[in-house]
User: Which sequence fits this backbone?
């Protein structure tokens, strides 16, 4: 059950890493194209402050673009840090999965060896039961023969 949970966790982390990677690519594309309208989604808390500043200083557009660029750079750095952490988590998850798979394969090999030993012991037990039954039948025959001789 824990293998399943671990696999689901790893899949979730890989999906998150993929999503973050695509967002980083989108942000990088937008920054290189000087298209700051795409970045509002990623700068939402700071975007409200930037909008207030833009309304107050609409005449000073170059400063607003510089502020937006600074906000984007900060958000880009934070996003980059999140991507790096996510990549580290995915790597750790993969290492953990490989270690768990190795332990599972060792356990499975041990279990297979035990299963072979159990089968051999069951065959030996069946042979001993058969031998016991055969000996009991011979004793019964001998007892019957002795009873018939004593009459």
Assistant:
């Amino acid at each position: 059950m824990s293998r399943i949970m671990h696999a689901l966790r790893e899949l979730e982390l890989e999906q998150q890493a993929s999503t973050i990677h695509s967002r980083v690519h989108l942000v990088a594309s937008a920054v290189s194209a000087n298209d700051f309208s795409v970045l509002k989604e990623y700068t939402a808390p700071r975007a409200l402050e930037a909008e207030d500043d833009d309304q107050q200083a609409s005449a000073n557009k170059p400063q607003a673009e510089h502020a937006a660029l600074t906000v984007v750079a900060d958000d880009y750095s934070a996003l980059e840090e999140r991507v790096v952490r996510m990549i580290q988590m995915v790597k750790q998850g993969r290492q953990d999965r490989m270690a768990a798979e190795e332990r599972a394969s060792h356990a499975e090999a041990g279990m297979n060896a035990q299963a072979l030993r159990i089968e051999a012991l069951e065959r030996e037990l069946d042979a001993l039961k058969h031998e016991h039954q055969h000996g009991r039948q011979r004793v019964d025959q001998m007892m019957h023969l002795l009873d018939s001789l004593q009459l």
In short: The helical segments are 2-32, 44-56, 61-150. The CA atoms of residues 57 and 63 lie 8 Å apart. The longest helix spans residues 61-150.
